[in-house]
Write a structure and sequence with these properties.
Shape: globular
Low-confidence stretches: none
CATH topology of the largest domain: Rossmann fold
Strand order of the largest sheet: 2-1-3-4-5-6
CATH superfamily of the largest domain: Methylthiotransferase, N-terminal domain
CATH class of the largest domain: Alpha Beta
Distance between the termini: 60 Å
Bound molecules: 5'-deoxyadenosine, iron/sulfur cluster
Oligomer: single chain
Largest sheet: 6 strands, parallel
CATH architecture of the largest domain: 3-Layer(aba) Sandwich
């Protein structure tokens, strides 16, 4: 058995130990997750472990016996918000004997740990991105031995399989296929807090997707900081003789394209999405795999970050404006129905009006279906933070507003193209705004609200788009009448 498998088995023993101690006590936990889908997926694992111990979930912090924060440090200063929240817990801590556990990306940052140690001594557990699987042991130590636990390591990272998981959605299953990042984009903290790229074995991913399919899931979303580098590190190590493929794990599936093709074969799964690929690694085999795999959505999230070649160089993105646009054209020429979404950062160090205009130019040319826009936020420890030519906040905000106006114009224009068309909708559940209506998504991730019976939840049906709004459509179900 591998060391990682042994480590997970040990934690399963701790789950049982805690379960015995808290038996019949009807204890509750609450969790706050910040950040991206990868963090959400980590939280699903945290919930899986904690619920196996016997805790039940509550949204009300006053009822909780265990409060968990899964933090993110990629953007904005979530620090003040987190510290404010922890401050609020002090009273509850004394009243309810609350256990407070804080984990995730932010805990890999030294200045955060220093502040926690100094001002928030009553926090019980601090865990990092590489020690999430040890939460059962941490909780056991707090309950049984009344210890304070700080379990953070700064390593390249391992892959732990078979952790319990409590999924939030019953329709879409998130599957992390790789961890970490090797790219070191100069604005980004991820490579520092999540370690080096490491991929899960194809067989473990396939098994997880098959399990999702047999539990009724129709959609999977493959997650990673850089999904199209899937298995690149491993294959390089094998080539260089630094690693051996003893069990033939990588013989058949050795790339992201191969993984897509294999997942496409899994019966029961009807939609496959993935986030995020990196433009510099978007190889032809991936384009072919998307084209030839009927279940892979013809909708690609392709982070641009900036439309200026000069800025892209400063950001260490390894492509130019022209190369990005050529890639879009190449994909379109092979898959005419393809649509794109993207991420853009506004106001990175040194961004001039001309650079920003280049970003607007790419947005106009590609006509993205969706753009996730971010104001550059300096991250301690990154190269970007040390760049001298930082942009004043007011300019950043003005540019952000201009980008937002353009993006909304384009989205509104694109939305008109949907009117009168029939779209395949994966039905997710009752609409949040009106529980009598159902909500679902098109292949291009547009939300559609329509009248229908709850029995349709978790199936893919045809819906005609009859009204467009900026962030959702109204639709009408198409009823197929079979003649006798
Ligand atoms: N400031 C603003 N946005 C950032 N992102 C990553 N780091 C930063 C930062 N320091 C954005 C990028 C990335 C998305 C997940 O978050 O656009 O694609
Ligand atoms: Fe950050 Fe760049 Fe890695 Fe994405 S590819 S996680 S932006 S360093």
């Amino acid at each position: 058995m591998s060391e990682e498998a042994e480590a997970v088995n040990l934690q399963k023993e701790y789950i049982e130990k805690v379960k015995n101690i808290i038996k019949n006590k009807e204890l509750k936990y609450t969790i706050l997750t910040l950040g991206c889908q990868l963090n959400e997926n980590d939280s699903e694992k945290i919930c899986g472990m904690v619920e196996q111990m016997g805790y039940t979930k509550t949204e009300k912090i006053e009822e909780a016996n265990l409060a968990i924060f899964n933090t993110c440090c990629v953007r904005e200063n979530a620090e003040e918000r987190l510290f404010g929240k922890i401050g609020e817990l002090k009273n509850l801590k004394e009243k309810n004997n609350l256990i407070i556990a804080i984990g995730g990306c932010m805990m890999q940052e030294e200045h955060i740990i220093e502040r926690l140690k100094k001002s928030f001594k009553y926090v019980d557990i601090i865990f990092g991105t590489h020690t999430l699987h040890k939460l059962p042991e941490d909780i056991f130590r707090v309950i049984e031995k009344r210890e304070k636990v700080k379990d953070i390591v700064d390593i390249d990272g391992y892959v732990y399989e078979n952790l319990p998981i409590k999924r939030t959605s019953k329709v879409t299953g998130s599957v992390t296929i790789m961890y970490g990042c090797n790219n070191f984009c100069t604005y980004c903290i991820v490579p520092f807090v999540r370690g080096r790229e490491r991929s899960r074995k194809p067989k473990d991913i396939i098994e997880e997707v098959k399990k999702l399919a047999s539990s009724g899931y129709k959609e999977v979303i493959l997650l990673g900081q850089n999904v199209n580098s899937y298995l690149c590190s491993e294959m390089n190590k094998i080539k260089q003789g630094k690693m051996q493929d003893v069990n033939g794990d990588f013989a058949k599936i050795y790339s992201f394209a191969k993984l897509l093709i294999e997942i496409n074969k899994i019966e029961g799964i009807e939609r496959i999405r993935f986030v995020s690929p990196h433009p510099k690694d978007f190889t032809d085999d991936v384009i072919e795999a998307i084209k030839n795999s009927d279940k892979v959505c013809k909708y690609i999230h392709l982070p641009l970050q900036s439309g200026s070649t000069k800025m892209l160089k400063k950001m260490n993105r390894n492509y130019t404006k022209e190369q990005y646009l050529e890639l879009i054209e190449k994909i379109k020429s092979k898959i005419p129905e393809i649509k794109f979404s993207t991420d853009i950062i506004v106001g990175f160090a040194g961004e001039t009006e001309e650079d920003f205009e280049n970003t607007l130019d790419v947005v106009r040319k590609v006509e993205f279906e969706q753009v996730f826009m971010f104001i550059y936020s300096r991250r301690v420890g990154t190269v970007g933070d040390k760049m001298p030519d930082q942009i004043p906040e007011d300019i950043k905000h003005k540019r952000f507003d201009r980008l937002k106006t353009l993006v909304e114009e384009i989205i509104a224009k694109n939305n008109k193209n949907y009117l009168g068309t029939t779209q395949k909708i994966l039905v997710e559940g009752p609409s949040k705004g009106n529980a009598k209506l159902l909500t679902g998504r098109t292949e291009t991730n547009k939300v559609v609200v329509f009248e229908g019976d709850e029995s349709l939840i978790n199936s893919i049906i045809d819906v005609k788009i009859i009204e467009d709004h900026m962030w959702y459509f109204n639709g009408e179900m198409i009823v197929t009448i079979h003649s006798i």
